[in-house]
Amino acid sequence: MKKRILAAAMACLLLVSLAGCSSGGNGGGSSEDSQAETSGEGASSSSDEGTQEKIKVGYDIYFLGNSWSVQLYQEFKWNAENNYADKVDVTYVESDNDITKQIANIEDLIAQAEADAAEAALEEAMAEAEENGEIPERTEE
Fold first, then answer.
1. Is the residue at 86 inside a domain?
2. What is the pTM of this model?
3. What total of structural domains would you count in the chain?
4. Is residue 45, in this structure, part of any structural domain at all?
5. Of 15, 56, 90, 139, which has the most beta carbons under 10 Å away?
6. CB 47 within 8 A of CB 60
7. Does 47 reside within a domain?
8. Residue 8 belongs to a domain
9. DSSP 29-98
10. CB-count exposure of residue 61 (10 Å: 0-12, 13-18, 19+)
11. What is the per-residue pLDDT across 1-46, written as a single tens digit (0 to 9) for each?
């Protein structure tokens, strides 16, 4: 029983987080207005619109043994592909009703997210350091 409650709670949390990320809170304004407000760059942010990275979402399919679980998974996948395809990149993993496999799957998803975040932060720091002249340019000898 606890496993089912945990699985249902995690699925609901994923759906709520996806819905929260998509709302943007712009009160009916255009997405360009929302991007300009958050970046503080004014109208120049419209040229950066195409370079915005997708949000990475991990979805663990815990159990497909009943119609409720199948329906939840199918609706999540449909919404991700049809309503948020340009905003999210979803990685699906299956636990096959095994809590230890679910824990391993989620740990793998977190490790991948941490690796991606670390790589992005390093690239940004290196670019900023090069821009500020803190890293000398390499010379061929």
1. yes
2. 0.51
3. 1
4. no
5. 90
6. no
7. no
8. yes
9. --HHHHHHHHHT-GGGGGGGGGGPPPEEEEEEE---SSHHHHHHHHHHHHHHHHTSTTTEEEEEEE-TT-
10. buried
11. 666 665 666 665 555 555 555 544 444 444 444 333 333 334 434 4
